[in-house]
Amino acid sequence: MKQIAVIAGPTGSGESTITNEIARRFPDHVVRLVTATTRTPRDNEISGVDYYFFTKDEFAAHVKDGSILESTYIANRDVYYGTYIPDLQKKIDSGKAIIINPDIVGARYYKEHYGATTIFIVPTNIDELEHRIRSRSPGVSEAEIAKRRDNAAKEIREEQSFYDFTVVNADGKLQEAVGEVVEILKKEGYELG
Q1: Model's pTM, two decimal places?
Q2: pLDDT band at 25, cuts 50/70/90?
Q3: Residue 61: how many CA atoms within 13 Å on its side-chain side?
Q4: Residue 7 Cα distances to 81, 99, 108, 130, angstroms
Q5: Is residue 192 part of a domain?
Q6: Number of domains composing the chain
Q7: So what's the pLDDT on residue 111?
C-alpha cells in the first residue's frame, strides 16, 4: 500500500481545498500533512491544524536541529514553507494515507524518498486563479496579484510536466476535481476505504 501522495499546484488552484475534502470523505483512511510556515495566519487558521506557524528564527532553528526535513523560501512573499518531521512521523505511524501539499521542491523530495504519486492541480485559466486569490484575500495589492499571476503561469509552464497527473479544478466544479483525484489515488494503490 502506498502511503504518501502529493497534491500540489499554484496558489489559488485549490490543492488544499481538494486535500481537505478527501480527508473529510475518508477520515479513517486519509490525513493531511500539516506544513510548517513563517507566513502570518489568516483569519480562523489554527497552528497545528492549518499550518505550524513559526517565526523565521524558530523556523531556522527547526531546520538546524533537523525537525524541518525539507524547506523552500518563497522570495516574492518572504515566506518559508517546510515539512515538520514530528507531524510527518506521527501520521506515518498512524498507517493512514498522507496527502501533502508541497511546492516542486517538496514534490520531488516525496517522489524520490517515499515513492509518492504526484498530482498537479490547475485552474481553467489564470483569470480564474486571480478571482480566487481576490476572493480569499480581499486586501491584496495589485502588485501582489500581478506577482502571483506571473508565478502561477511560470509554475504551470515549467513544473507541470514533472507531475504524474494533472487535474483541472474549474470554478464551480470542485466535486468533479475531487472525484478525479480520488480515482487516481485508488488506481495508484492508496487505501481510501
Answers
A1: 0.88
A2: very high
A3: 5
A4: 15, 7, 12, 20
A5: no
A6: 1
A7: 96
CATH code: domain of residue 100: 3.40.50.300
Maximum C-alpha span of the chain: 46
Query: How far apart are alpha carbons 83 and 105 in whole angstroms?
Result: 11
> Residue 193: inside a domain, yes or no?
no
- What distance lies between CA 45 and its chain's CA centroid? 15
* Distance (Å) of CA 170 to CA 110, 174, 175, 183: 27, 7, 10, 17
Nearest 10 degrees: CA dihedral of 47, 56, 160, 14?
30
Rounded Cα gap, residues 185 and 8, in angstroms: 14
For the chain, what percentages of helix, strand and coil (3-state, to nearest 5) are there? 45, 20, 30
**Whole domain around residue 110: which residue ranges?**
4-187
